[in-house]
Amino acid sequence: MKVQGTSSTENLLVLEKIAANDITSRANYCYALFWSLGTATGLFLYYSFMKRCRQTKGNWTWRDTVLCNYCISEFYILLFSMSSLVHRPDYMHVTNINCAVLSFVFNLACICGEFLQVLMALIFACHKDHFPLQRFTRVQDRPIAAVGVTSLLSLLLCVVLAVLREQQPLHDYTDCQLDPFDAPYTYDVVKMTIGFIFPIFLKLVLLVVWILNDPSFLSSLKDNPVYPAVTTVTFACRLFYNIVLMDRAAMKPGKPSLWKEALMTVAEFVLFSGSSICLVLVLCLHGPCRATLKETAGHLQKCCSGIGGRDANRRVMATHIEFQQTAVTDN
């Protein structure tokens, strides 16, 4: 009886693992589409911003500067997501130091993207046309310096997370997770605080300041559709991710079930998909990028029409030559 009970339990575990892996694999296939779309969009955005830089001879607006750096952060998130995309439902097997570096750079891209959204909110809220304090209105006149300070702040916060991450022998191999379950509970709490709650709080405060100081708030929001679009998508995706992260962290120091691990993988793919969607939104809603897209589509249409026209002319010429040859033969 004990042997039968043990066998039954093992069979249930095998079936549970198969079902969990099936969920992970389906999420992986779905995210592969988002990854392809986001990667292609990111590369086109690089081309668009570089073309914009050459046309303006480096005299970008603050929107171009901030959005270009924001797109770089989101594109790096897609690049680092390949460690999950390629290896799921298993994990990438690397040394602890390589995994720590991967996690550090991933956190840097995520936190930098959040604080660049805060920077956009700060510029909108403290615009010189309606905000009385000149010290804050100077931010939009020095966008490169503002982006540099934002990146430096993000780097310091990521160093804090790296210190909180559990230190293990550097050259031992491990199954690498971007947010490892073996990390202390403090790591998860601090990451959610500085990477999600704190930026959301700052954006809400700046939104209130923007509403109070700008009498034409709705028209300003309509004239700058990129900010509300990317902020909404980022909030929804990272809210789901952080809820799942804290739910898994509540199980420490135990071991997460297979369903929890599968749900965590789905949450990671949702987080990565948010970056892909944000890149598409920047391409569609930012005026210069949208103009470059229309111009490129027009060139491709002309090229295709030219190729089609040449093929049609060739067919007409071939028919005419064949007709002449037939007439000569009859004579």
Automatic annotation (TrEMBL):
Gene3D superfamilies: Rhodopsin 7-helix transmembrane proteins. The chain crosses the membrane at residues 31-49, 61-80, 100-124, 144-164, 194-213, 225-244. Keywords: Membrane, Transmembrane, Transmembrane helix. It comes from the Eukaryota. This is Uncharacterized LOC108923917. The gene is LOC108923917.
